[in-house]
């Protein structure tokens, strides 16, 4: 009877944590504007595109296509809107909370699994990327499922677990190329396990060979695109990392308060590893976590130094699970009151970041606001000026994508057409430019106008500007037509 009551209580706590996570992920879902990368995602997965076009655009960009395929299906059902686009990430982020519970429950006591799911539900880094139309929430979800079934396969040698490991890992590889680095950490773990713990290693060694063959065959369609991704300047925005880069990343994940929580947890865990006798199953699990943690940062670092930089905090979102689980192992060995105090302090710092530091503030490039503003004057031609955005092989008209999402019925003229009209002296006497900047060579919005030869131009005057976060809408007129162009503003205002 007592066990039944505890079970019901734990189910109630888990459901409460899930609803807390849902609230935190959906409460400000469309508060902030979509930014450049999100508009790429929406453009590629526009439900009006056919399947082959969606896949081609994604592969020719810098990513494998599974997330875009999922988003394409999602938008077909729920519409081409801001809420629909971001709700997929919020939904996957909620699933991540649930998976974190079951992932942990395989190895720790249920109260620790509940603590892990609680940390996942209130983690600001996970909440932030649950509000972004990108693949990061899906990568962490698939990463945990991949590691879960790898661990079960290693311990049980069961083919069902092996097949599930293959399934989730292949989907993960088709979601983000960063997965290749973490899969390398899995291979290191398996080899260490075989040589240290496994007496009869023949079956597991065969599984390893089979897995390697399956994975190599599965990524053959990606190889030409993966090679193309490494060419050119598609990662111009990523700098070579310092050897201590992971410390900054851990701070990004958890903030200063969470950083101390993690540090205490790591110290406790290392103390118990070095001084206490630990069950074989626990030891194997901790070794797996430490390999995931150490090599999950080391391998991308070595790649970035020897070839091209490919480390970004958002790519490394898959490092959050081992950090939390290593920390909570040591904390779970302390007295209950100390565990509660540490978790309470972590929650206080997290809620401070969520509700005070972030609150209802806007952090992203504002594409929506200048677009909505100029839509009031839609009789004036609108040119988009988006230079040097890194990987715009499709020449995405970002503001047009956003106009379609908001159902504004605008015709946004892209920057190629602007350059042509400027060169051939076909620009109208009144026109809007809407622009943001996303480049290390452009430090302020005025630099964009300089790039397009509109700053201090002899033929045109900038007669009105509306400024937003890293974006502007500017009204230009041919010299001598200023009063006529300003009439449009007065008529509307």
Question: Could you please describe the fold and organization of this structure?
Answer:
This protein has 2 domains: about 350 residues, no CATH class; about 120 residues, D-Maltodextrin-Binding Protein, domain 2. Helix content is about 65%, strand content about 5%. It has 21 helices and 5 strands. It has a 5-stranded mixed β-sheet, sandwiched between helices. α8 runs antiparallel to α9 and α10 packs across α14. It is elongated.
Beta-strand percent range: 5-15%
- Low-confidence parts: 389-393
Chain-averaged pLDDT? 89
User: Mind summarizing the main beta sheet?
Assistant: 5 strands, mixed
What labels describe this entry?
elongated, D-Maltodextrin-Binding Protein, domain 2, about 500 residues, five-stranded mixed beta sheet, alpha/beta
Give the helix/strand layout.
Layout: H1 2-26, H2 36-44, H3 51-60, H4 66-78, H5 82-105, H6 110-122, H7 124-130, H8 136-156, H9 159-173, H10 179-196, H11 202-218, H12 223-229, H13 245-275, H14 280-306, H15 320-332, H16 336-358, H17 368-375, E1 382-385, H18 398-406, E2 412-413, H19 415-423, E3 430-436, H20 445-451, E4 460-468, E5 471-478, H21 482-492
Parallel strand pairs: 1-2, 1-3
Antiparallel strand pairs: 3-5, 4-5
Helix pairs in contact: 1-5, 1-6, 2-18, 5-6, 5-7, 5-8, 6-15, 8-9, 8-10, 9-11, 10-14, 13-15, 13-16, 14-15
Sum this structure up briefly.
The protein is α/β, with parallel strands linked by helices and 493 residues long.
């Amino acid at each position: 009877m007592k066990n039944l009551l505890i079970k019901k209580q734990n189910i109630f706590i888990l459901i409460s944590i899930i609803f807390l996570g849902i609230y935190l992920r959906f409460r400000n879902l469309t508060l902030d504007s979509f930014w450049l990368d999100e508009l790429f995602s929406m453009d590629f997965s526009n439900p009006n595109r056919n399947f082959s076009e969606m896949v081609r655009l994604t592969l020719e960009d810098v990513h494998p296509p599974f997330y875009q395929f999922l988003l394409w299906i999602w938008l077909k059902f729920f519409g081409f809107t801001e809420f629909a686009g971001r709700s997929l990430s919020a939904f996957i982020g909620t699933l991540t909370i649930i998976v974190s519970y079951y992932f942990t429950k395989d190895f720790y006591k249920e109260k620790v699994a509940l603590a892990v799911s609680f940390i996942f539900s209130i983690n600001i880094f996970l909440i932030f990327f649950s509000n972004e139309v990108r693949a990061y929430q899906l990568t962490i979800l698939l990463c945990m499922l991949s590691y879960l079934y790898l661990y079960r396969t290693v311990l049980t040698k069961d083919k069902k677990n092996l097949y599930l490991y293959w399934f989730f890992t292949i989907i993960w590889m088709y979601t983000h190329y960063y997965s290749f680095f973490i899969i390398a950490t899995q291979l290191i773990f398996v080899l260490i396990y075989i040589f240290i713990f496994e007496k009869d290693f023949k079956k597991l060694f065969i599984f390893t060979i089979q897995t390697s063959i399956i994975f190599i065959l599965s990524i053959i369609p990606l190889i030409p695109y993966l090679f193309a991704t490494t060419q050119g300047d598609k990662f111009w925005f990523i700098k070579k990392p310092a050897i201590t880069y992971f410390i900054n990343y851990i701070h990004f994940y958890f903030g200063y308060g969470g950083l101390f929580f993690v540090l205490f947890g790591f110290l406790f865990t290392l103390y118990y590893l070095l001084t206490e006798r630990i069950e074989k199953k626990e030891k194997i699990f901790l070794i797996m976590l430490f390999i995931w943690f150490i090599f999950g940062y080391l391998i991308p670092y070595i790649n970035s130094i020897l070839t091209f930089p490919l480390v970004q905090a958002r790519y490394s979102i898959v490092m959050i699970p081992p950090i939390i689980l290593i920390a909570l192992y040591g904390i779970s060995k302390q007295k209950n009151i100390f565990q509660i105090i540490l978790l309470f302090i972590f929650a206080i710092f997290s809620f401070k970041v969520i509700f005070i530091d972030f609150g209802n503030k806007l952090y992203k490039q504002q594409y929506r606001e200048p677009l909505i503003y100029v839509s009031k004057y839609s009789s004036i031609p609108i040119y988009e000026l988006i230079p040097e955005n890194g990987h715009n092989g499709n020449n995405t008209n970002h503001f047009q994508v956003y106009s379609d999402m908001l159902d504004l019925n605008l015709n946004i003229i892209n920057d190629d057409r602007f350059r042509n009209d400027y060169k051939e002296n076909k620009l109208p006497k009144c026109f809007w430019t809407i622009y943001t900047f996303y480049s290390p060579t452009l430090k302020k919005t005025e630099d964009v106008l300089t790039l397009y030869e509109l700053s201090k131009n002899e033929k045109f005057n900038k007669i009105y500007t509306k400024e937003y976060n890293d974006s502007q809408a500017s009204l230009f007129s041919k010299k001598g037509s200023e009063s006529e162009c300003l009439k449009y503003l007065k008529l509307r205002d």
